[in-house]
Design brief:
The protein is of the alpha+beta class. The chain is about 50% helix and about 15% strand. The protein is built from 15 helices and twelve strands.
Length: about 400
């Protein structure tokens, strides 16, 4: 409930930085043989219907289909067991006790580098941050040489992959197996980063994802796929969100003031609202394993078994019937209905909701709070593009400069 003491929404004009073409209206629509779900209720229903809806990943590559699917592409009992087993790596207590000091130290190291140089590309700083934090959780800590952030960036930034597979990581692996450049990048990441970590944990298991996977009998190639999955779901998304959040906060003095003056709860509220407005993963693919009925307004849409669905997170997050008036403005104190989270569906929902949501917002907050405490200005305008393979925006050449 909004009271007289609640800070007012500081903006009254659309504030999205990441628009690509026209935004859609919430609804349900059949285009060709693919169903497009764009309302909050429809998207949430499908995300929670793990009994009749499956992940949309497909691939025809022989090697990939012989592997155990990565956790984000699993369903049913196998997925529930895996999620339960890895949940311990992402709890608020684990983040605070095991990772907070590391994140704080890493942030300070990056800030010192910025201060000494006088300026830096924020997309580079945020990539280094996100890779090192995620690598610590996954267990990629025994690389033969530095530069894992660059290797992952090169591996995931390539184009030419059909986004309709809905499986960027597996599609990238499939592509790498048939393209010399992709194979070289994949082999380099495996040889320099993944294999040394596996070898170290075979000798001495630790409390991390790779050790857990080895305990479940995963082979090296299956672990490589899992590492790429975490790179996509954790490292890349954190990098892009830090960029878009800094963009908002640097351009708007009022909301930056609220953020810097607020406690952790208030800061997280502001970051969640930015994430609602600018979801990094804009599209998810699903496939109906049984008939599904979606109701929207006065209409009932019957989706047959075998049909593919595109879940438009970006439009669902701006569904005025749920998030209230002016859904494209930045308003951290929205009066949301019970059950609707501040970031809406940006972390997903249901069985496949992002397990690292708390870690993600925590590391972003630690870094942004320290960064925005400096006197900064942007040099030029960041370059904004859209990665068709990952179905997410990318922010590059975001040069920030320290000034007196």
């Amino acid at each position: 409930m909004i009271t007289e003491s609640t800070p007012r929404c500081p903006f009254h004009e659309p504030e999205r930085k990441t628009g690509f073409g026209s935004d859609h209206e919430p609804g349900v629509e059949l285009q060709g043989d693919v169903w497009h779900l764009r309302s909050y209720a429809a998207v949430k229903q499908v995300l929670r219907d793990s009994g009749r809806v499956r992940q949309g990943a497909t691939t025809d590559n022989f090697l990939v289909t012989r592997l155990r699917p990565a956790v984000i592409f699993q369903d049913g009992e196998e997925h529930r067991e895996q999620r339960t087993a890895i949940a311990r790596f992402f709890t608020p207590k684990t983040v605070q006790d095991k990772h907070h000091a590391f994140i704080d130290h890493l942030t300070e190291r990056l800030i010192v580098r910025l201060l000494r140089a006088g300026q830096a590309d924020l997309s580079d700083l945020s990539m280094e941050l996100s890779v090192e934090v995620a690598a610590r959780v996954v267990g990629l800590t025994d690389s033969l040489q530095p530069g894992m952030d660059r290797r992952i960036d090169e591996l995931l930034s390539g184009g030419g992959v059909n986004s309709e597979t809905g499986a960027g990581t597996l599609a990238r692996l499939q592509s790498a197996m048939t393209q010399s450049k992709g194979l070289l990048q994949m082999s380099s990441f495996y040889r320099i980063d993944v294999r040394p970590a596996i070898q170290a944990r075979r000798k001495k298991p630790q409390e991390d994802v790779i050790s857990h996977l080895l305990g479940r009998g995963y082979n090296d190639l299956e672990i490589l796929v899992e590492c790429l999955t975490y790179a996509t779901a954790g490292m890349v998304t954190t990098r892009e969100f830090i960029g878009v959040a800094a963009w908002h906060l640097l351009e708007n003095d009022e909301v930056r003031g609220q953020y810097l003056a607020g406690d952790r709860t208030e800061r997280h509220r502001i970051l969640h609202e930015i994430l609602r407005l600018e979801p990094v993963a804009s599209t998810l693919w699903r496939k109906a394993s049984e008939d599904v009925t979606i109701e929207h307004g006065d209409a009932a849409h019957h989706i047959p078994a075998g049909a593919r669905m595109i879940l438009d997170i970006r439009t669902a997050n701006a569904d005025a019937s749920v998030v209230g008036d002016d859904p494209l403005t930045l308003c951290p104190h929205r009066a949301l209905p019970i059950g609707v989270q501040a970031q809406a569906l940006s972390f997903g929902d249901g069985a496949h909701r992002c397990p690292g949501a708390f870690l993600a917002i925590h590391e972003r907050d630690v870094f942004l709070h320290r960064l925005l405490g400096l006197l900064l200005r942007t040099v030029g305008t960041p370059e904004l593009t859209f990665n068709e393979m990952l179905m997410s925006y990318e922010i590059r050449d975001f040069i920030v400069e320290v000034h007196e």
